[in-house]
Amino acid sequence: MAINKKSEFQDSIQRFASFAKLLSHPARISILEVLASRQTCVCGEIVEVLPLAQSTVSQHLKELKEGGLVKGTVEGTSSCYCINWENFNQMSEEFITCIRSIGEFQKENGGCC
């Protein structure tokens, strides 16, 4: 059985990878764009503008919510979602910082190929 060595990496690298994974599907990026443009949104409205089934949108919203990028409430049969801007901004800043630190090696080493 394989051992998960994720915990062996720095917290900042783990957060970078988690954020990248959340953004790794075009549907999730599109959902974030819809939520950002409308401030808040009922799940049904998202389904109307994306070429995806209700169940698929719900699954992606679940991923975004579990990852902390989206907040949501359930009222009866409707769900209302919005971007968790505090988490989004923090994750974005850490993501950009990590990308820039990787890019610094190119300046130092010039690359190998």
UniProtKB/TrEMBL annotation:
<keyword id="KW-0805">Transcription regulation</keyword>
<dbReference type="InterPro" id="IPR036390">
    <property type="entry name" value="WH_DNA-bd_sf"/>
</dbReference>
<dbReference type="Pfam" id="PF12840">
    <property type="entry name" value="HTH_20"/>
</dbReference>
<protein>
    <submittedName>
        <fullName>ArsR family transcriptional regulator</fullName>
    </submittedName>
</protein>
<dbReference type="InterPro" id="IPR011991">
    <property type="entry name" value="ArsR-like_HTH"/>
</dbReference>
<feature type="domain" description="HTH arsR-type">
    <location>
        <begin position="8"/>
        <end position="103"/>
    </location>
</feature>
<dbReference type="GO" id="GO:0003677">
    <property type="term" value="F:DNA binding"/>
</dbReference>
<dbReference type="GO" id="GO:0003700">
    <property type="term" value="F:DNA-binding transcription factor activity"/>
</dbReference>
<dbReference type="InterPro" id="IPR051081">
    <property type="entry name" value="HTH_MetalResp_TranReg"/>
</dbReference>
<dbReference type="InterPro" id="IPR036388">
    <property type="entry name" value="WH-like_DNA-bd_sf"/>
</dbReference>
<keyword id="KW-0238">DNA-binding</keyword>
<dbReference type="InterPro" id="IPR001845">
    <property type="entry name" value="HTH_ArsR_DNA-bd_dom"/>
</dbReference>
<keyword id="KW-0804">Transcription</keyword>
